Each structure stands twice: as structure tokens, then as C-alpha cells.
Protein: N-acetyltransferase p20
Amino acid sequence: MDNMISTAEITLRKFKVSDVDSFMEWAGNPNVTQFCRWDTFISKDDALNFLNGIITSHPWYRAICINDRPIGSIYVMPASSAGKDERRGEIGYAINENYWGCGIATKAVKMVCSCVFKELNYLDRVEAFVFHVNKASQKVLEKAGFYKEGILRKYFFVKGESRDIVVYSILNHTDMP
Structure:
């Protein structure tokens, strides 16, 4: 596996309906989805509905691909509150368990940050909300240049449990002298 990853091309692209089987490899894995706010997909039909409905209508949701085969997903969701929060976006990602610890998530996050401030040029910052127990994802963000801002105690109620969240951010520096 390590050999393949070192020579593989990592790209980001929009999802296609034909990606459903690859999507199910990680979105149907409870080891991956334990750190997601959404539930594990157990049916291909539910996954297709998610791909057709949520992902295709999302303003910035991409497949993380190795040689054009999706092995994960990454998104930036612009805040929707006009006036107060419209200059913030939230990043989230999930990677197939077979690729954990290979640097792919870090590279994907860096790739997103290098383009999302240009594509969504009204954003001043991108935030990440990571479960306190998810140390691997915290390392990904730190390696990608995000700054740890603090912990929000019992901030999200997810999967029947109140969760502590670590907040990370990266700022848009393109408008600075």
C-alpha cells in the first residue's frame, strides 16, 4: 500500500453518481463515520440519495481521489447567516480507513485551502470542528497550517452523546499586505 500511495496522484473533483461503490467503502464503515456528524450508510440507495441530493447541491463538496478513484470526501460549507457569519466556512473530511496515516488527508486539506479562498473569495476564515477524542484529525489540521483555538465543551450532540469539540481555523491571507 505505501508504495502505491507514494506514486499515486491525489486529486479533488466533484462526485459522480458512478462513485457510489467507492463512496460506500468509507461512508459505510463505522470506524470512519464514528467521527462524522452523519450516520454510517448501510444501503446503496441511501448513499445514492445522498450523492444525488446533498452532495450535488452542496456549494463545495469534493471527492478525494487517488488516480481518479474516490477514497474520501472533503467539503467547505459556507456559513448561511447573512451579515454575522457569512465570511466563515466549515471544513470537514472523511478518508477510507485503508488510507489513514498516509498523509492523504493532510494533502487534501492543504489543496482545499490553496483554492477555496479563491473560489469562495468572500471567506475570511475556514474552521474545523473536531471531536476531542479524534487526535489523528487534529494532527492533520495542524500539519495543514490550521491554528488550534480552543475546546467547546459538550458542543455537539451527535449519535446520542454530547461531544467536546476542538476548534481549529485558518485565515485567508490573500487580502493581507
